Amino acid sequence: MHDNNTPKSESSNYARSRYMRFTVLTLFPEMFSALLIGGIVKRAIERQYVSVEPINIRDFAKDRHHTVDDRPYGGGCGMVMKPEPVAEAIRHAKKRHPEACTLLLTPQGRLFSQMVAQKLAGYAGLILVCGRYEGIDERIREHLVDDELSIGDYVLTGGELAAMVVIDAVTRLIPGTLGSEDSAQEDSFSNGLLEYPQYTRPRSFEGANVPEVLLSGDHSAIRQWRRHASLIRTVLRRPDLLMVQALTAGDIEFMKKLQQDIKTIIGKHSTAS
Ligand code: 6GU
Questions:
Q1: How far from 77 is each of 41, 73, 156, 208, CA to CA, in Å?
Q2: Is the pLDDT of residue 232 over 90?
């Protein structure tokens, strides 16, 4: 899949600050053709902002049966991925992409987040190692990978879907991959808050109207309404995000006023009862 792409920035006059090479080491390379079905990632591959090259770990198994797993030392159920084919596959990928960061996808990894995605988008390449079976021989993680990533606190049957999540989240941060340059700056988490509500036509839908301010053409009022809506939504749904988020003086003032309004309402109800 788009194996020997030459980045546009090297082959044409169109200067491009970044190009991302994803190399995926997996036992199921066909899974990654899902990325070519549609959407932003497909377009980014076609326009050569990124390349995705799945490599089958089984191709690096030396024995006649191309064995990639074995029973765990010490007993127990399930199979463990043998270290030799994985190590050979990683060395092969690193030789071709010495500048790349090598990541193991595992539920025991560091939690993937927008901040991690932003950091990863700065590399020229990522080598994503997908574990299967009950796990991968411990000596791989000790010596051959730079970091371990998990996409959340649940267990998948393998690292492939997690690798695709990482590819998706990182691709959209590569300049040029999104329609308009600033749409990656506006979305949830990149400013530490949840995104404000969006509306499009019609003005009235099944009795629900678009907030007046958005129709006003008053850009400063719209900006303020959106910031306030983001704050309210974040307080209600993800207060944990606000604990680490730098808030402006205006944000604090708005939230104090909210707090006062809530106190007034509660006060009225408790004196009424
Ligand atoms: Cl990266 N791998 C697996 N197998 N399960 C996961 C995961 C990764 N992240 C969350 N659950």
A1: 38, 11, 17, 56
A2: yes
Residue 172 is a catalytic residue: yes
For the chain, what is the mean pLDDT?
A: 92
Q: Looking at the chain, list the stretches that DSSP marks H as alpha helix, in order from N- to C-terminal side.
A: 8-11, 39-46, 83-96, 114-120, 138-143, 160-171, 183-186, 219-237, 239-243, 249-272
Cβ(60)–Cβ(93) below 8 Å: no
Mutation to probe ligand 1, out of 111, 156, 165, 167 (largest number of atoms < 8 A from CB): 156
Query: Are the beta carbons of 54 and 29 closer than 8 angstroms?
Result: yes
Encode pLDDT of 81-110 as tens digits.
999 999 999 999 999 999 999 999 999 999
Amino acid at 133: Y
Question: Which domains, and CATH codes, for the chain?
Answer: 12-171 (3.40.1280.10), 204-272 (1.10.1270.20)
- Write the CA distances from 268 to 160, 226, 262, integer angstroms: 55, 29, 10
The residue among 65, 71, 69, 125 whose CA lies nearest residue 101 is 125
The residue whose CA is least distant from atom 3 of ligand 1 is 156
The token pair at 81 is: 């991925």
Mutation pick for ligand 1 pocket among 28, 81, 105, 126 (CB with most ligand atoms within 8 Å): 105
Peptide bond into 211 cis (omega under 30): no
Indicate the pTM of the whole model: 0.91
134 given a catalytic annotation: yes
Q: Is the CB of 136 under 6 A from ligand 1?
A: no
